[in-house]
Amino acid sequence: MKPKNVRALCILMIPALLAAGVAHADTYVYQLLVDSDNNPATGCGVPIHDAVISATFPGIEQVLEVTVDRTATGGTVTGVTLAQCAAGVFGQARVISSGGWPVGRGTGVGGADVVEAAVPFAELGNGNLVRVAFTASPRAAGSDVMVSVNGTNGGPILFELPSAPVPLLTAAGTAACAALLGAAAFAALRRRVDRRAAWVLLLLAGTGVASVALALTIQLDGEVQDWQSLTPVATDPVGDSNLQDAAEDLVAGFLTADGFNLYVRFDVVDVNVCASKSDGSPVPGCCFVDTDCTAPKVCGGGGVPNLCSDVIGWANLQWPPTLAHTISVITRTDNVYGQVWISSVTSSPGATPGLSAQVGFGPTGSDPAGNAAWTWVDATFNTDAGNNDEFVGSFLPEATGTFDYVYRYSTAGGLAWLYADLNGPVTAGSTPPNPGEMTVSASSDTTSPFAPTGLNVTSASPIAIDLAWNAVLGDATLYGYEVLRGASTGGPYTQLARLTGTTYSDTPVVQDATYFYVVRSVDLSFNRSGFSNEANATAVARTVTVTFNVTVPASTDATGRSVYIAGTLDRLDGNLPAWNPAGVVLTRVDATHWTITLTGDELTQIEYKYTLGSWDYIEKDNACGEIANRSLTLSYGGSGTQTVNDTVQNWRNVAPCGP
User: Fold this and answer.
1) Does 30 have pLDDT greater than 50?
2) How far, rounded to the nearest angstrom, does the alpha carbon of residue 277 sit from its chain's CA centroid?
3) Is residue 111 part of a domain?
4) Three-state SS for 594?
C-alpha cells in the first residue's frame, strides 16, 4: 500500500518532456470500461470492435478515458476524464486530470509503449469487485479491445477495489515499525521468554520489511519500475486492431490501487510509431526514408529515428575558455558563446527554425549527456557568424567550486543533442576533451541568514494551497526565500520556487492530496538558512452554496404542477437522487420564477434539466425542440457562493408544445 501524500506528490509532478518542441499532434483515446457492480444487466452498453470482435459491451457504469497526443517522436497524456452512466445514458465526462506526463517509449510488455492514468477509486465504488474492459482508438469507438483476460474469449477481467480509505504508514514509518518488532523479537529470544511469540514478532517484522519493498508509488511518468511486481490483468494478441494501427494495438492491461487511487496502465504496440494517422494521412514530420522528408532535412538527421530533421555538420563552444565568478543570487556569469553549422541552412540570415541550443555546466571531467548533475540554460540566437549561427547564454551557479561547461545543440526538439566543447563536436558517449572551465568563488559574506518563522497555510483547495510566513528583518544582505515541498513530514523536500515576497500559491495540486512545506531564507551570496517550521495542508474541496434561479413560462401555474430539477444531483450534498424528474422540487417565488439552493464540493461537475415532476413535462426550447443537458461546474470564487440564472422556454405537453 502507498501513503496518500507520496502518491499525490508523484501524480502532481508529471513531466511533459518527450513532446517538447514537436507540433502537429495526433489524438488517440484509451478507455477503461468499468462495470462497478459486476452486473451486465445494469448500466450502459458501450460499442466495441476490433479485427476479431464487434459487439456492445453491457453493464458499464463508468468510462475512464485517457487522451494521448502523439507525434512522430513522442506521446503525451493530455487529459483524463470520467463519464457516469445514469438512466441508460452517459452524462458529460468530468475532468479528473489535465494530464501532462509522457507516454513510456518501449518500456512495456514486449517493448510496448506505456500509457498511464489514475482516478480516485471512490469514484468507482469502495470495496467492489468490478468487471472491466480496455479499449484503444483514434477518437472513435474502440478499434482494439480487451474484454477478457486473454483479449477476447477468456474469463472476464475482474479487479477488487479497496475498501474505504484508511490512514497509511509511510515507507519510513513501516520500516521503523519493522525494526522495533525485530528488536523486540531478538530481545525475547535472548531472554528465553516465549519463543513462539518471538518468532511471531520476527514474522511481523519481515512482513513490514517486505511491505516497504512493495510500497512503490505509481508515478505517472511512462516508466514501469513501480509496476515491476505486478502482472497484467489482461493480455491481447498483437495485430488485432481493426485498422492495423500500432498506436491502437493493445497488448496488455494493468490495474493496481492504493488507499485512494485506482491506477490503470495500457500497453500499446507503438504510440509513437511512424505510421499513418487514422484518416490515412502521414504523421507530420514522420519518415521511414530520406525521401519522406523535405530537403535538406533527412530521416533521423537530428538523432531521432523516424523524424525529419536537419543534420548538424559542426558545432563548438566558441568563447570564453574560462570563467571566474563570485557567487551571487542576482549577478550572472559573463556570457558564454557557441556556434553551429548546418549545410545550406545556417547560411541563411537570422535564426534557423527548429534549431535550439543550451549551455550547461557540471562536475569536472564528467560526461554531460543524460547527467542529472549538469545544469542547462537555454541559449538565445545572437548573430550570424559567417555561415554559422551563434548563440549566447550565461549561468547563475548556486554553489562554489570548479566546473566544466559546454554547449549542446538540437534539431529534434530537444529529444536528441549534439554536445560541443572548445575543440568542436564531442563524440557520443565520451567525456568532452576540451570543455570550458568555470571557477565559482565564495563572496566575502559567508554568514547564513536567519530562518523564516510563522509558516502557515492561509487557504487549501484543489485549486491551490496558499502559504504565508513572517519576513526576516534587519538583514541587508537578504535576497528572499525558497519554498520547498515534501510528500511526508520531515521531508525530503523539493524546491518549488525562489521569490522575494512572503506569500506563495502552490498550483496545480491534486484534490485530497496532502503536502508538507518548509521555507528557507537565501541571501545575496546564496547562503541559505535552515528550514522554517513545517506546515501541511490537504487539498480538500471547499463547500459551494449554489442557488438556481429559473424563469419559467407564464403558463406554468396553470398546469397545477411544481418545478423540479433533475440530473446528476447525487454528486452534491444531501443524498439527492440522480435523474429523478420528481425528486428535487424548487420553491415558487412568483408565477414565472422558482428557486432552490443546494451545496456541493467545488469543482464538482453536474448535468441537469428542469421538469414539472415527470419526463412527460420536461423543458423544451423556444421551437418545442429537445435541448441538451445543462451543465455546471461548482466554483468557490471569493465567497463560496454561486448563482445560476436559467430560463425555461417551454414545457413538453404544455402549449404551445402540446395540448
Assistant:
1) yes
2) 25
3) yes
4) strand
